[in-house]
Amino acid sequence: MKINYKLLGAAAMVSALPSCLPAEKKAGENTQPNIIFMMADDHAYQAISAYSNHLIETPNIDRLATEGMLFTNACVTNSICAPSRAVILTGKHSHLNGKIDNRFPFDTTQITFPQILQNAGYQTAMFGKLHFGNNPKGFDEFKILPGQGRYYNPEFISNKGTEVIEGYVTDLITDLSIDWFENRRDKSKPFLLMYLHKAPHREWEPAERHYQEYIHKSFPEPATLFDNYEGRGSAAKEAEMNLLTHMNWSGDSKLYPDVMEELGIEPTTDWDLKPLKNREEVMTAEQIASWDATYKPMNEEFKKNFPKMTEKEKMQWRYQRYMQDYLACIAAVDENVGRLLDYLDENNLRENTIIVYTSDQGFYLGEHGWFDKRFIYNESFKTPLLISWPGKIEAGSRSDEMVQNLDFAQTFLEAAGITPPEDMQGESLIPLLTGETDKWNREEVYYHYYEYPAVHMVKRHYGIVTKEFKLVHFYYDVDEWELYDRNKDTLELKNVYNDPAYAEVVKDMKAKLVDLRAKYHDSEELDQKFIDMYDEK
Ligand code: CA
Predict the structure, then answer these.
(1) What pLDDT digit, counting tens, does each position of 13-71 carry?
(2) Ligand 1 centroid to 38 CA: how many Å?
(3) Fold of domain 40-204+324-438
(4) E strands within 30-181?
(5) Where are the domains of the chain?
(6) Are the beta carbons of 413 and 116 closer than 8 angstroms?
(7) How many Å lie between the centroid of ligand 1 and the Cα of residue 149?
(8) Which of 4, 186, 233, 532 is found 20 to 30 A from 69 (Cα to Cα)?
(9) Measured in angstroms, how far is the CA atom of residue 511 from the centroid of ligand 1?
(10) How far is the CA of 77 from the centre of ligand 1 (A)?
(11) Does the reported pTM lie above 0.90?
């Protein structure tokens, strides 16, 4: 679908606020906190040193944990980019906000928390990646990437139209944010800034200063890099997320098309060759020369070694190439988070400000032999979450509670003293943030993934997760159940659904799942409705 952003932008500007917004609340002088929502795209918690430093040090992101709270059990409701963003903005599960996958555009009649904050007197701004297929409502100012956007010299859409800004996307999103603080901040109002990185989304194109460094690094392999998927059902076996067989050789691993041709390597997908073939259109001659100076020698070496490489060695090579570029993209995110935090510190903007760092979901960094996300299995189900709020959150604290991206909207509204709309489905995190943990009583979370049949071929599934167990139902073209004992099987390698020792657990979890589906208003009718939507397309 081709969208005329200029027209959409103009329409969004003149449309009136929906009448069902809560009554306007006047912004009190410095009583309502400022909110900075920092989110990366596909940033795995395994790649944040506050969680584990086996892959990379992220000293700047870690500052939010040192000064605030680290969540060890944060998760998403539907592990894929745009749906996660819709859940965050609306405080509703995908089946109610309607944004079930990356294909259908976001329904802009949905009420989002930024609209409510803006209506209550907040100054609001969004910079970076939204990926909705339309412009955001509720923002005094926004500059967003069209769709996935580009790493180099990206286009940005604002309500004035589209412009190309030369530079590296992670640096630019930070520049735009700091420029907004410097030149357009209305100091009489509290603010909401949504600072949304494109990185480290595929195809992992790092900044020059980082690819030059990271291409010489090597990283420890995960225990399940050579997973054979035994002990699980058809979904894990049939998913097309394998590093060796499903990752693009050129776009992702940075092989040049002529090198692939010479070695007889077929493109993995029909967009495999695009990034390198099309780079003249988007990168400057200088950027290309620098890229070639680093990536050409890697290609030459691979060409030399390829004929004698075993399948295992190819997998290991692909894992290292993946980590070098993925983690180099994270390095730029961490630097830029540091730059923004330094700016806030220098301008006394930390005191009454909630700062969240999270990702739109987790990501596989070679676990189960995979890249990408989508599954309810841990690496994509869980997501990083660090929050600082000086004076409210105890520095260096940690929460193991099961919190979700569903909870942000109500958290921010409660922090601002606004009663959330009744149909929001999350829980405010304020009791956890302020140490009133007895007010928190969630014991289970709900998950539902839809985008199938589609890229990566991860089957439709829904499930319930407690701290102890995970029960999953894969449906549509299969009818398979999986149960994992989360304490005994942390790598999730053994489905114990049919193990008689777990018969009682299965019964109990199934009953809880029925209740949970009812509580969140999900149903077989809705499952079918979203299947029909695909069939009609
Ligand atoms: Ca994502």
Answers:
(1) 334 444 445 544 444 445 899 999 999 999 999 999 999 999 999 999 999 999 999 99
(2) 13
(3) Alkaline Phosphatase, subunit A (3.40.720)
(4) 34-40, 69-71, 74-75, 123-129, 141-145, 155-158, 161-164
(5) 40-204+324-438
(6) yes
(7) 13
(8) 186
(9) 31
(10) 13
(11) yes
